[in-house]
Specification:
48% strand; Jelly Rolls; five-stranded antiparallel β-sheet; mainly beta; 151 residues; three-stranded antiparallel β-sheet; 1 helix
Length: 151
């Protein structure tokens, strides 16, 4: 019997980020909201591309039980995670990324003055995402978004 390990999701993101000309949808930037498109889906993971103009970002959120990874393909993004009841920033430059587990909560934003592009990989595929507010150092659920309804 073969013992097949699942792919390293950060390596998957790196491969997709290296070839935007091969994406099934053209990259674009939307001045009113963050642009995103699913690039691929398979039995064990899915791949998304996101573009970020200066000032665009996400709410504080999780990935509905999916683990994953994301890689900054161009520009600079700042990921903020909750630690000790406060948001802690982690700037990520082009070529850098991070893996995360199924309970990871973060927000990501382009705080710079140049556009940014990132590639995100999730296992299993996203089915829901929960948005949070940080109130008095504690996470409070703000909204639960379902795949096929909210995105």
């Amino acid at each position: 019997m073969l013992n097949r390990r699942p792919p390293d999701l950060l390596a998957v993101a790196r491969r997709w980020a290296a070839d935007p000309a091969g994406w099934p949808v053209p990259l674009r930037f939307d001045p009113t909201s963050r642009w995103y498109a699913r690039l691929a889906s398979g039995p064990d993971h899915e791949v998304w591309a996101l573009s970020w103009l200066p000032g665009q970002g996400t709410d504080l959120h999780d990935h509905g039980g999916s683990g994953g990874a994301f890689l900054v393909a161009s520009g600079v993004l700042t990921e903020e995670t909750v630690s000790g009841g406060a948001l802690r920033p982690h700037p990520l430059t082009a070529g850098s990324g991070r893996r995360f587990g199924p309970r990871h909560v973060h927000q990501v934003a382009n705080l710079g003055d140049e556009p940014a592009v990132s590639v995100h990989v999730y296992r299993p595929a996203l089915r829901r995402m929960t948005s949070y507010r940080l109130v008095d150092g504690r996470l409070r659920v703000a909204e639960v978004a379902e795949a096929g309804v909210a995105w």
